[in-house]
Amino acid sequence: MSEHKNGQSRRDFLLKTITLAPAMAVGSTAIGSLAFSPAAMAADRPDNGPQQAREYQPSWFTAEEYAFITAAVARLIPADDRGPGALETGVPEYIDRQMNTPYATGSNWYMQGPFAPDTPKELGYQLPLVPRQIYRLGLAEADEYSKKQYQKVFADLNADQQIAALKAFETGQAQFTQLPSKLFFSYLLQNTREGFFSDPIHGGNQGMAGWTLIGFPGARADFMDWVERGEHYPFPPVSIRGERA
């Protein structure tokens, strides 16, 4: 989790670097990449975490796992004076719902061996784990790390401890036994980004707050008349279901 000087907030960094957001904003379950630093966004959040936008009971994660997800995404994309963050916009719900898709079970992945974990990442994914397994194993290992370091599970840590733990996962400093901590963190971060900018039909981006933040029009049928005007697009985003922000 990179540090940002001169009072630059996580939201500032997100706005300046989210160059790929429009390409994925309508919603995709593929592991892509948005160009902003991983857990970089982490020092300016108050410790009294926000309440999620609506009650949601996870269908795949256990209560303990879901508590971790809820706490982690609130640190990765926090609420601030520009709008709600990942927690308030339903990102935990988005991630839970993704666990019941072909993406999470790897049914559309090639998963036959041999596996060569030391192969350069440019040559493709090289582990025998699908996203469901990455989350289940990673969440257990992450809580175990938190208990060893701080005598509490991740969800019960204070803000500084949660940020320090996320940094350890991101850099690989946290030694997991069943998978690399960096791999677990990369999925958590990527799915948090996806949930914040996906169409609300998938559970996240509630109120289209992510789209409003970056000025993305959403699933409007036609906005090409505005593309080359050099003007701020004046209309609110529209979801696939026709809801307006």
Automatic annotation (TrEMBL):
The keyword Signal applies. This is Gluconate 2-dehydrogenase subunit 3 family protein. Keywords: Oxidoreductase, Signal. PROSITE patterns: TAT (PS51318). InterPro entries: Gluconate_2DH_su3, TAT_signal. GO terms for molecular function: oxidoreductase activity. The lineage of its organism: Bacteria, Pseudomonadati, Pseudomonadota, Gammaproteobacteria, Enterobacterales. It comes from Tatumella punctata. Its EC number is 1.-.-.-. It is an enzyme of class 1 (oxidoreductase). Pfam families: Gluconate_2-dh3. Residues 1-42 form the signal peptide. It comes from the Bacteria.
